[in-house]
Design brief:
The chain folds into two domains: about 400 residues, Up-down Bundle (Sodium/glucose cotransporter), CATH 1.20.1730; about 90 residues, no CATH class. Helices cover about 80% and strands about 0% of the residues. The protein is built from 22 helices and no strands.
């Protein structure tokens, strides 16, 4: 049986399992936005842990991060520093997002922003920036899966066929099962591609001659064992990942979906082992050991994002089909949540809020499903643009960088009662403007576009907020006092 036939059979079996899970989940769905987007706020510890990890770690883990480690060596490993902090952020930010979401029945981040700042415009701004930031993130899931299919089958399955397979299937299962199906499928896919990554790591080490292969790197590729500096580059990625874990719309809505804050507390304890040790170290080992001469035939820096498919197409084509399924699992487990989130921003924050306020919950759910299909089509079209087919990590970092500029404004309802509407809006405008300017023209400072915008956005938020005052100051004080009473009852007394 040919490699192409085996790959197709494995892919059909894998997609069939996902379709079955989605079908089971759809039987419990209720035609309301809260149920369709947030699984009726009922996710437990295991599902929450797996869906947050699987939704955040995507094809860039099994492809892009490995490629970056191959090209940059130990320098890129510093990006994993964010993982030490993000578990803490689940509690520091996620629990407060959960509390406010449950209390006020929020569905989107924009719901919270409008409620706190009394500004429909800020809600609209959050929705637009969120959708724009999610597009690059969704793109790499589709392109990564398509590249893997193409690489493993030696171009027998063209890139465009892989794009259509990913697009059609993702659009179908997300429309069918919504947030509950996404969470259930993420749990299965997270275990699947996590286990596959561990197995792949040991296979690479064994094929390279054991752990001694890392010692040999001193003579084979000494440049990847040296920190090449450029702190700003790695800080750009680390900060984007760090804050992106809670500010990205699809991650924010995961916190709304938890059954209780205790679920988030347990998730914050478990997730470092799942996200840090498994994902970061696996990618590090594979990427660096791929430098061993002859280990991955045909490997060059230009195609290093496809190290795993290239390796298995040579040594173990049958297992390579499972690997491609794992890559596609990583992609689907991210794009499903991102598609749901994009649809909720477009439907709840724009259509229902500004165009048709009287639409029923059932009708809103139906419109959301149509929107998911349209969003899928848009992402598929973008995937054929050459600029979207570059290295995966930089494309993903662009998405993080865009949404990162929302962080200062989000700190208002979560922590800083002195933050004002003028400060929030101006911080986003300054942050995004700086990002675009630095991205196009560069900067004399050792900072990347996203970091430059983020720092100036925070400064703008603080300065403008100190110089302005909102009319609902008393209501904001009550908002923060209630949170203090909830989290620190002894201090509230």
């Amino acid at each position: 049986m040919s490699q192409v036939a085996v790959t197709i059979i494995v892919l059909i079996l894998f997609l069939g399992i996902l379709l079955w899970i989605s079908s089971l989940a759809s039987k419990s769905n209720i035609a309301t936005p809260s149920d369709f987007f947030l699984a009726n706020r009922s996710l437990g510890t295991i599902v929450m842990t797996m869906t947050t990890g699987a939704s955040y770690f995507s094809t860039w883990t099994l492809l892009g991060a490995i490629g970056n480690h191959y090209r940059d060596g130990v320098w890129f490993s510093a990006f994993a520093a964010w993982a030490v902090v993000h578990a803490l952020f689940i509690w520091l930010f996620g629990s407060r997002i959960w509390y406010l979401g449950r209390k006020h029945h929020f569905v989107t981040p924009g719901d919270m922003m409008e409620k706190y700042y009394k500004s429909p415009f800020l809600r609209l701004l959050f929705a637009i920036v969120g959708m724009v930031g999610l597009i690059p993130y969704m793109l790499i899931q589709i392109t990564g899966g398509a590249f893997s299919l193409n690489s493993l089958t030696n171009n027998a399955i063209p890139y465009w066929v892989g794009i259509l397979i990913m697009g059609v299937f993702v659009g179908m299962i997300v429309t069918l099962s919504g947030g509950r199906g996404a969470a259930w499928a993420d749990t299965f896919m997270g275990f699947f591609f996590g286990t596959t990554l561990v197995v792949i790591t040991f296979i690479f080490i064994y094929k390279a001659g054991g752990f001694h292969a890392f010692v040999n790197l001193q003579s084979v590729a000494p440049e990847i064992l040296v920190n090449k500096g450029q702190f700003s580059g790695i800080m750009e990625t680390a900060i984007g990942l760090m804050f992106g874990f809670w500010i990205m719309p699809h991650m924010w809505q995961k916190f709304y979906s938890a059954k209780s804050p205790m679920i988030l507390a347990k998730t914050s304890i478990i997730t470092p082992f799942w996200n840090s040790w498994l994902m970061a170290l696996g990618a590090l080992f594979i990427g660096m050991i791929a430098r061993s001469p002859g280990l991955v035939p045909g490997l060059t820096p230009e195609n290093s994002d496809t190290i795993i498919p290239l390796f298995f197409s040579t040594y173990a084509p049958l297992f390579g089909s499972v690997v491609v399924a794992a890559v596609i699992a990583a992609g689907i487990s991210t794009i499903n949540s991102a598609l749901l989130s994009s649809a909720s921003l477009l439907v709840n924050d724009i259509y229902v809020r500004f165009i048709n306020k009287d639409v029923s919950p059932a009708r809103t759910t139906f419109i959301s499903k149509i929107t998911i299909l349209l969003m899928t089509l848009i992402v598929v079209i973008f995937a054929f643009i050459p600029a979207a087919q570059g290295f995966l990590v930089p494309v993903a970092a662009l998405g993080y960088g865009i949404v990162l500029q929302l962080v200062p404004a989000a700190l208002g309802p979560l922590y800083w009662r002195r933050g004002t509407l003028a400060g929030a809006v101006s911080s986003i405008i300054v942050g995004l403007s700086t990002l675009v300017i630095v991205y196009i023209f560069g900067s004399p400072l050792p900072l990347g576009p996203a970091t430059s915008g983020f720092i100036l956005g925070i400064i703008t938020f603080v300065v403008v907020s100190m110089l302005t005052k909102d009319s609902n100051t008393q209501e904001k004080h009550i908002h923060h006092r209630e949170m203090v009473e909830t989290y620190f009852p002894s201090e509230a007394k």
